[in-house]
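User: Run a structure prediction on this.
Assistant: Running it now.
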Amino acid sequence: MPRRHAYLWKERDRARRAAAAEQAHLTTTAALANNLATQTQAVAAAVNGTLPNVQAMPIANCSQSGNNNHTHQQS
């Protein structure tokens, strides 16, 4: 009988660890989803032109011309 009892304790502990790991995974996934939603809103605002100070910005190592001194217009 003691062996069976020990097995049940081990199984209970294993189930608790699995539940804790699943909860951690869900928490991380929720945080990532929230972060993605925030970033998506920022990108949407930029695309809609609602962010201030959006202007031409130099692009390093661009191969469009022979030099790296030109800019690409951001809108």
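The chain has a mean pLDDT of 77.
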